[in-house]
């Protein structure tokens, strides 16, 4: 017991305000250097070519002191919204009153509660705080950056939604080798076996079954659409131009909306769902 008390006392002495300040500085530096942070990969796209992209309204990178203000409390009832709105003024000035935007931090969108990914000029600060709160819980990184984009349009009458409001559309993840400038493999972003078992909401399960042609009344062929999307990407990938800074294998996510393919996200391959090194080795051997 005395040994435990001694260790506890040592910890209390260690975690001084100065120590925590240095720890925060270290975290900030690591976050800014993370390759998955939006500004660290998006800036390397020279030309989208055939593919579409969601217009960036603002991509705000915070200073170390600003992130401290945004994260100064984990109680939403004690947040100083005026302070945060002052920090976000550069972004708020670019947003139209009453318009809905799609937001995320540098690495994390919290799409599993899509209601937090939608923001207006009036509630941007609160939505960002919610995203960063969950981001810190799961240690996703990206809290030093805010990305505000135009919402990719969709037909509300025809498009099903899951995750508390997220439009469910065909999407693929391409594993692209920047060193060899070739596609390694492509997967269905909404792979049934991978995703269905992780759906907790019964409504989401019903929608997901319909989306994958597993319920009556679904006439469009999900698999056929995916094959057409994959074919198009293989034919048009060379029109997507990058500089020479990105190395290795990255995942590139493309979303299909009315026959338009939007590039929506990127990450290093080994940090992405569906990463399978055996597929790459198999291709090399053949």
DSSP, total strands: 13
- Summarize the main sheet: 5 strands, mixed
Output the structural class. Answer: alpha+beta
Model regions low in confidence, pLDDT < 50 over at least 5 residues: none
Count of alpha and pi helical runs: 11
Kindly report how far apart the N and C termini lie.
62 Å
Q: Could you give the order of the helices and strands?
A: HHHEEEHHHEEHEEEEEHHHEEEH
Strand order of the largest sheet: 2-13-12-9-10
Strand content: 15-25%
The level of helicity is 25-40%
Q: Quick check: average pLDDT?
A: 92
Outline: globular
Report on this structure.
The structure is a single chain. With 286 residues, this protein is an alpha+beta fold. It is 37% helix and 22% strand. The protein has eleven helices and 13 strands. It has helices spanning 2-14, 17-33, 38-42, 64-70, 81-87, 89-92, 124-138, 192-196, 202-211, 222-236, 277-285, and strands spanning 45-47, 52-53, 56-61, 101-105, 118-119, 145-150, 161-162, 166-167, 171-177, 182-188, 241-242, 249-257, 260-268. It has a five-stranded mixed β-sheet with strand order 2-13-12-9-10. Strand 7 and strand 8 (166-167) form a beta hairpin. The termini are far apart. The mean pLDDT is 92.
């Amino acid at each position: 017991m005395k040994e435990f008390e001694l260790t506890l006392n040592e910890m209390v002495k260690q975690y001084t305000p100065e120590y925590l300040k240095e720890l925060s500085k270290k975290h900030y530096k690591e976050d800014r250097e993370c390759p998955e942070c939006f500004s660290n990969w998006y800036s390397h796209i020279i030309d989208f070519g055939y593919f579409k992209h969601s217009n960036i309204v603002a991509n705000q990178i915070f200073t170390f002191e600003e992130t401290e203000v945004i994260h100064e409390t984990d109680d939403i009832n004690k947040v100083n919204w005026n302070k945060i709105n002052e920090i976000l003024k550069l972004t708020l000035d670019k947003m139209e009153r009453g318009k809905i935007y799609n937001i995320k931090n540098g690495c994390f969108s919290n799409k599993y509660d899509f209601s937090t990914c939608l923001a207006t000029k009036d509630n941007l600060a609160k939505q960002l705080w919610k995203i960063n709160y969950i981001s810190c819980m799961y240690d996703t990184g990206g809290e030093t950056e805010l990305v505000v984009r135009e919402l990719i349009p969709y037909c509300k009458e025809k498009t099903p939604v899951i995750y508390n409001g997220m439009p469910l559309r065909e999407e693929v993840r391409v594993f692209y080798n920047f060193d060899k400038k070739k596609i390694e493999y492509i997967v269905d972003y909404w792979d049934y076996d991978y995703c269905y078992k992780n759906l907790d909401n019964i409504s989401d399960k019903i929608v997901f079954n319909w989306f994958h042609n597993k319920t009556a009344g679904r006439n469009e062929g999900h698999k056929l659409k995916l094959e057409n999307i994959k074919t198009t990407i293989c034919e048009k990938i060379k029109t997507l131009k990058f500089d020479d800074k990105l190395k290795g294998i990255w995942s590139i996510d493309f979303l299909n909306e009315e026959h338009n393919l939007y590039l929506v996200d990127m990450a290093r391959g080994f940090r992405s769902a569906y990463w399978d090194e055996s597929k790459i080795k198999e291709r090399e051997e053949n």
